[in-house]
């Protein structure tokens, strides 16, 4: 299955293309401008020696993230899906953050900086390599959020460095707290989640589908 995925929720745009063989091509951009995203997509298609019409499924992360990044990414993903008459699979970015860490731990906590001394976070339980949310996303003071998460967890996200002291103080009695330094979610992890949905759910092209992004600011 050929999958083109756009992760535009963070400060760094990550675009990935997966081929039937499982080979993945990736491009990272620090500029969210439409011409740069189009250029990156064109390069990936040329490197893979396929056309946009050859893509079977498009994937998009829907945040939480900045208004500009999500709006631009979603506009491209919807446009690609509509022009090629192919399905569009939307995945929350917190799940994309958590996905690669399922190889390291059962409990994953994603912690993002929501500004104004608040965090946006969610805890996940990994089942068969896929993160499953164990509660609704939380937005508010970091200590209120940390009180809800499992005692033995791996933390990841843009707010982990900012609130590392609070995390270690809250879990000072636990020997199994790890903080990952990954700065941005990756398109290859978005592709893995899109592929899982494509294999386990009925997905089809729907021009009327409503995809709602989650904006921070």
Query: Uncertain regions: pLDDT < 50 for 5+ in a row?
Result: none
In CATH, the topology of the largest domain is named: Nucleotidyltransferase, domain 5
**How many domains make up the 3D coordinates?**
2
Q: CATH superfamily of the largest domain, please?
A: ATPase, nucleotide binding domain
**Class from helix and strand fractions:** alpha/beta
Q: Would you write up a description of this structure?
A:
With 217 residues, the protein is an alpha/beta fold. The protein folds into two domains: 3-93 and 185-200, ATPase, nucleotide binding domain (Nucleotidyltransferase, domain 5); 94-179, ATPase, nucleotide binding domain (Nucleotidyltransferase, domain 5, 2-Layer Sandwich). 30% of the residues lie in helices and 26% in strands. It has six helices and eleven strands. The strands form two sheets. Strands 6, 7, 8, 9, 10 and 11 form a six-stranded mixed beta sheet that branches. The protein is globular.
């Amino acid at each position: 299955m050929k999958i083109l995925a756009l992760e535009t929720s963070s400060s760094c745009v990550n675009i990935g293309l997966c081929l039937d063989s499982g080979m993945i091509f990736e491009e990272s951009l620090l500029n969210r401008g439409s011409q740069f995203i189009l250029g990156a997509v064109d390069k990936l298609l040329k490197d893979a020696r396929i056309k946009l019409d050859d893509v079977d499924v498009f994937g998009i992360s829907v945040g939480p993230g900045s208004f500009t990044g999500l709006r631009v990414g979603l506009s491209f993903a919807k446009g690609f899906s509509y022009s090629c008459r192919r399905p569009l699979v939307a995945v929350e970015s917190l799940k994309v953050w958590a996905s690669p860490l399922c190889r390291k731990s059962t409990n994953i906590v994603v912690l993002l900086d929501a500004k104004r001394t608040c965090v946006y976070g969610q805890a996940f339980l990994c089942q068969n390599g896929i993160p499953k949310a164990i509660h609704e996303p939380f937005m508010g003071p970091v200590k209120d959020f940390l009180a809800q998460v499992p005692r033995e967890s791996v933390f990841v996200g843009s707010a982990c460095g900012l609130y590392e002291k609070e995390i270690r103080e809250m879990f000072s009695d636990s020997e199994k707290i790890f903080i990952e330094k990954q700065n941005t979610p990756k398109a290859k992890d978005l592709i893995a989640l899109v592929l899982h949905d494509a294999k386990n759910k009925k997905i089809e092209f729907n021009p009327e589908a409503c995809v709602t992004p989650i904006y921070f600011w």
